[in-house]
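Assemble and predict.
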Amino acid sequence: MTGKELLKILDGRILVFDGATGTSLQNQNLVEEDFGGEAFLGCNENLNITCPAAPGKVHRGFLEVGVDVIETNSFGGTSIVLAEYGLAERAYEINHAAAEIARRTADEYSTPDHARYVAGSMGPTTKLPSLGHIEFDAMKDAYKEQVKGLINGGVDLLIVETCQDLLQTKAALAAMQECFAEGIREVAVIVSITIETMGTMLMGTEIAAALTTIEPYSIVTVFGMNCATGPKEMEENVRYLCENSPKPVFVMPNAGLPENIGGKACYHLTPDELEFWMNRFVKDFGVSVIGGCCGTTPEHISRLVKIASNLNSANIPPKKRNYDYTPSVSSIYSNVALHLDPPPVIVGERCNANGSKKFKELLLAGDYDGMVQLAKEQMKEGAHVLDVCVAYVGRDEVRDMIEVMKRFNTQVALPLMIDSTEYCVIEEALKRYAGRAIVNSINLEDGEERMKKVLPLCKKYGAAVIALTIDESGMAKTREKKFEVAKRIHDLAISKYGMREDDLIYDTLTFTLGSGDEEFRNAGVETIEAVRMIKAAFPRSHTLLGVSNSSFGLNQAARHALNSVFLHYAVEAGLDLAIVNAQKIMPLYKIDERGREVCKELIFDERKFETV
Amino acid sequence: MSETRCTYDPLVELMNFYADRKAIGHQPSTASELTLEDKLKNRIVDGDKIGIGDDLKKALDRYSPLQIINEILLDGMKVVGDLFGSGQMQLPFVLQSAETMKAAVNYLEPFMERVEGMQKGVMVLATVKGDVHDIGKNLVDIILTNNGYKVINLGIKVPIEQIIEASATSNADAIGMSGLLVKSTVIMKENLELMEQRGINTPVVLGGAALTRRYVEQDLRKTYGGYLSYANDAFDGLRFMSDIIRLKAEPDAAHLDTNRGGAEVKSVKADAEDLKKVATSSSSLDKSLELNQAENRSRKSEVRGQKSDVRIQKSEIGNQESLTGEQKLPSAIPKSSVRKDSPVPVPPYFGSMTIEDLKLEKIWEYLNDVALIRGQWQFSKKGRNEEDYNRLMESEVFPLLEKLKLRVKREKIFSPKVVYGYFPCQSDGNDLIIYRPKDEKNLYRKWEPVTGSTEDGTWNTGSKIRNLTEWIRFQFPRQSDDRFLCISDYFKSVDSGVFDVIAVQAVTIGQEATEYTKNLFEAGDYQDYLYLHGLSVESAEALAEYWHKVVRTELGISDKDAREIKRLFSQGYQGSRFSFGYPACPNLEDQEKLFELLHPERIGIALTEEYQLVPEQSTTAIVVHHPDAKYFNIK
């Protein structure tokens, strides 16, 4: 089943997933021999090989009550988890077997009137890449093996569930993309995160940040949440997803909050209560896919089937959600919209080895913690996003970027802008960033060369990207030329590389007005007007300017004034983001009137001439 | 042959203009050019306390600490007062100045000789009994304290006995009473009567949203023999104190001082007319930002003020009605034209439940920023053109709001909670009867889910809802003219045989917000205090608005909602949310019934004897679904 096919199904009906696999297996009172020996006791995934009847029985239980989708018994099927039982080498085989068992059982129950589907279950493993437990690539490779086993074993779709760390989710998604690119059959993908009782993911991620990070992935068809709590505790977040997510929403709660009784997790939510809540989620909020997680039994799940069949038999189509998604970027913790009201989004410029003396010194001293401190300072100064550039002559940029990103990922609460001309630096940074980053930047200087390299990375890691209006003939100077380059990038990025209009952030280039150079006398007004043209032609796209450039060469006082006035007019023309030193931007009224006036005259080149 | 020549180049102009300036952000007038005295004065006006110690240290070479305070710093404070009064300075900046003043006084204190009575005067200050509103009162505290007076701030809901006792033990020069509610003006009158009976004549200053100069000067002055004054704002309070102290310090007043009792009273009273002249001759006074605004929720409290007036009259009428109601023929009750055939929506359940995992971001979508910024924070448009005002908003106020929100989230200052429920109900004349299941042991939970409704208008539920008994009876007043509206009219009547549904909600931002802001105040972070307090109060309002939206969604009547959230603030939706004490249901006593229905103690809301909610950042409401239901006034 492809993503498109899944969407089509969801247009007409609610899909019902099965209930708990793990707890259902536990209830079968399996013994050592079933697991294949003492060494494998508790390795549910090994049952696919040693005791296939056990997972088969779980599947049957749920198919009997009428579910649409069963999940394979492969939650802990990556080599990372299996290694704990010495079964790492058998990962492919185990996943393949899990898929086959589920496929066979589902097919037994499938009728032309009621197709039964199989979802390949992919759990979070036992490691958190954001905390450095495992490298991104190692995790991705483990997932690739699992994906191949599941798809070749016959699953209809994949579900990455119980996600705790978005970087783990990204590794799984990167694995799928690589598999699909290698020719493995492409299937629909569901991502389901886990919001703990404290209201965020385990790593502290808010629901909005999770949505912002996963939403750009075109391979993900459905997004939602499962596990950790019962439906009641999920309500606020389910509501948020239904009001904001462009992707259909998935909800799979536990049978209430687990209670530890005599060392065993007990779940107390009754089928009645589950029905009440899920009914509410489906009918009032517009949730599209429902199921049960830990502690849910066939009795629970039969109520979910009832909800769906009641709607179907009454010919009531699924509720059409009226969602409102704001294109945003995000750190591992929280998100920032790409257009703020009032504008602009302030991009702090001081974590740049080429722009900030302080940052350069910290970099040269290898003082990475000092860099974190500088990043935090910028947050206090009012920055919303931070530009990060560690390129410095004679230093290993890849290594520096890795060291910085490892820390910034969890220690800086603001979304980052990854600023580098080197593709491998960009990719190493993206691999270590759990949130949604902005990549700085692409252009057409060498034709499509740079787009060809960078945009696939943006797609693979879900990043937004800055596009500079530079082409083969150099930096565009007139508004018409700037717009022409922007349009060329726009068309290529969307039609050829699958980017979306709102993923693109155009920088119409800021030149200094301080040189007096005749060629740049109009540079200010041309840059500002180009912003206006781009926003008019591509209203969902964003614009950005490196404001500080406008005053290069002038003294500090003049710079502050000119930067502030320039920013004012650019924002008026529709500018969304500005790279500035947030501390050094003044509101206009704080600049004396004459200063303001002169800056405006300089920006709009209002020189006076006389003819002699 | 002609050639063009540049006669004016803005670049050259810009370079010249900024040639010998430091970066903007420093004062445009170079600080070094100013005298030390002006520098210090400017620091107070600009609220610039960083490094003030260095300047004060230099000043100490030339002046005594008291001279610095009285002759230099207070001069700055006077400028602040004038700017504030003429609308050129916003309240938050006034507080910044006050903080600077405090920092300066703190710095100077160790250099001062410890002389008893170093304070210029002592005021006992309190929000009167039954009133919890203290922003205005605290402003008076700030301004007086930072101008060298000693203020004994007794807090909120202070009974008169406590005020009198504090005044006696501290030998106070004056008493200040404050209160937002209309009811508080009555309490003030009672307090003054009691003080008069006991022969107390300490000068008293009154302030608060519902007070007027006329009421104080014409009505209350008859009650109280001591000197009595009205303060329009905190700076009025400052003038009052300096007048009182000046009077005391005058030689003739001083000798009267030894002659305790009536003579002093007389003397002060004799001067009252002069004082009044002094007060009213100050031109900035009438224009000044009103203390009552500082204390109020702006429009709202005015409305509340009127309402409470209404309440007093109306509750009498209400009583008459309920007395005669039983004997009255139904036809004698005037009727409104509220439609009777409006369908009854299906609630998701009956009973009530609490919601605790609320996202602040979601709540803040419903934040009324006009009420917050103009009402709570007092960024008034007065004295500014549109452009200036917008500039101020963009450059300072909105970023400030964002920062505050972040802080609230980081430090977990707010813990929003909701308790709400749906109840079967029917109207009976002016009464609204709320039912409960006969055999429900625990009323404070969800009794039963509702899965739909049948054609005859009854709900698909379990057996509980089919076996109901009367629980609570609200007696709503009816308009005596105009449209003869009464809230009960929006519900199916007992006669119709059909049950209706009413939603009831109580929301709070939590006790932490109250404590946190109190700590800020005590630590002298006045500006933060004002901002956070304002945000907390408006967040409670936002939560009420948000939850009303949830209720509409759950009832399936949200399709009429305005797309823009802003328009929800002016009832851009089906039905209406009524709070007790407001024009359509003025009886605050009904809060007790609402508490019986929802038991909001579950989420930490309590009700005072005066029917005020504690914590203050809480609201309660009944939600009416009927399409005809909109706000109206019981006249």
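Chain A touches chain B through 52 residues (CB under 8 Å).
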